[in-house]
Amino acid sequence: MMGDRSNIILIGMPGSGKSTIGVLLAKAAGMDFVDTDLLIQSDQGQTLQTIVDERGYLALREVEERVLCRIPRAGQVIATGGSAVYGETAMAHLKSTGPVVFLNIPLATVRERIGDYSLRGLSKRPDQSLEALFDERLALYQRYADLTVDGEGRTQERICDMILASIPN
Ligand SMILES: Nc1ncnc2c1ncn2[C@@H]1O[C@H](COP(=O)(O)OP(=O)(O)O)[C@@H](O)[C@H]1O
Ligand SMILES: O=C(O)C1=C[C@@H](OP(=O)(O)O)[C@@H](O)[C@H](O)C1
Ligand SMILES: [Mg+2]
Hints:
It is a single chain. The protein is of the alpha/beta class. It is 51% helix and 12% strand. The protein has a single domain, classed as P-loop containing nucleotide triphosphate hydrolases (Rossmann fold). It starts with 7 loop residues before the first strand and ends with a helix. Belongs to the shikimate kinase family. Substrate binds at residues 37, 61, 82, 137.
């Protein structure tokens, strides 16, 4: 099946369900799954948290952009990290490989799901609040989305079904 279908690319804030819903989508659609956070870690031989702690949040964004640009065109479900949208070239590449789906959840739900974000290796300016990061990113997620799915109050299975119903195969 790989090679003859478009990718499906998931974007959104940390906690929006990209990694977990991505697996469900891939199983339901008979596609492969890749989590770009894991690609970054194996490329660098470091955890995301270590990259941010030792080299800074901009280093993570640079590495992320390079890794995303190498994603092949074959049919895979791709869970990106929340900061993927800072890479303009990477997003142009990903969009050329298939539909980009924005998993949209409110700030309060991001807070609930991610807990103490200082321990999450988030790619954000140290002085930036989560609220400011959310606002900055919302505009970027909306810019790149081909499809937006509201995840609030919905199960992962329901969100998966909604995405499959909206994407031609
Ligand atoms: N629709 C949902 N309803 C309830 N919990 C969810 C939902 N989507 C994701 N979660 C939970 O939120 C957490 C973060 O999900 P994850 O897939 O890792 O998000 P991301 O990859 O976008 O950061 C996980 O514990 C996951 O089970
Ligand atoms: O939003 C972010 O800045 C990040 C989100 C993480 O991925 P998830 O969105 O899958 O949690 C991971 O890429 C890294 O810790 C940076
Ligand atoms: Mg994830």
